[in-house]
Design a protein that fits this description.
mainly alpha, Cytochrome p450-Terp, domain 2, 64% helix
């Protein structure tokens, strides 16, 4: 097997492991609820994939990929990112509500890419975008950005960053499902009405 191909497989395996589970994120919670109803693992995976398609969840990977494709070269990073902010747009792939000090999954995957293929043009672009985004908004890259960079690094077609995310997360959903099956309990959150009470007549 060619050395470059072996490096790519190593990076893909690392990415799949890093994104497999992330507490009770929306897709994992959805998958777990479906499993608690006694649905098959196939249905659990379908439910998770449905949630992952949301623009606020897995769609963030696609947005990060589109950003990198738009910027294209390190020299374009500054002007294009500044222009996005001036137009009121955000910079996809940066910041995470759970990690004020930066997403450790992104840090690990980006570091592994740098060690494995240090001369890649995809990494040169990634470094330029990361530096400029940090200077503009004070945020670190998250796992969505790292997956988008990985897809470029491996010359995968557009959309494959989300594919890597979905494949890795599916493994995590099935692990959640197995655990839920073993508990044999149905997830049933309660709701509390907080609106206006009807007036007595």
């Amino acid at each position: 097997m060619p050395k470059q191909q072996t490096k790519g497989i190593k990076l893909l395996n690392a990415a799949l492991i890093l994104v497999a589970d992330h507490e009770l994120n929306i897709s994992s919670f959805t998958a777990r609820c479906v499993a608690s109803a006694g649905a098959t693992p196939y249905m659990v995976a379908m439910a998770g994939l449905s949630a992952l398609q949301g623009v606020k969840h897995g769609g963030s990977v696609s947005k990060a990929e589109a950003l990198l494709n738009e910027i294209r070269t390190p020299d374009n990073a500054g002007p294009l990112l500044s222009r996005r902010l001036k137009h009121g747009d955000n910079i996809p792939g940066f910041g995470h509500q759970l990690y004020s000090e930066g997403d450790p999954r992104a840090r690990a995957l980006l570091q592994m890419m740098a060690e494995t293929m240090p001369r890649s043009s995809a990494l040169a672009l990634s470094n330029a975008v990361t530096r400029k985004a940090g200077a503009l908004i004070g945020e670190e890259p998250n796992s969505d950005f790292a997956l988008a960079v990985l897809a470029q690094l491996l010359n995968l077609p557009e959309g494959y960053g989300l594919g890597i995310f979905a494949l890795g997360r599916t493994i995590g959903w099935l692990a959640h499902a197995i655990e839920q099956y073993q508990s044999n309990r149905m997830i049933r959150p309660r709701a509390r009405y907080v609106g206006l009470m009807p007036q007595a007549h």
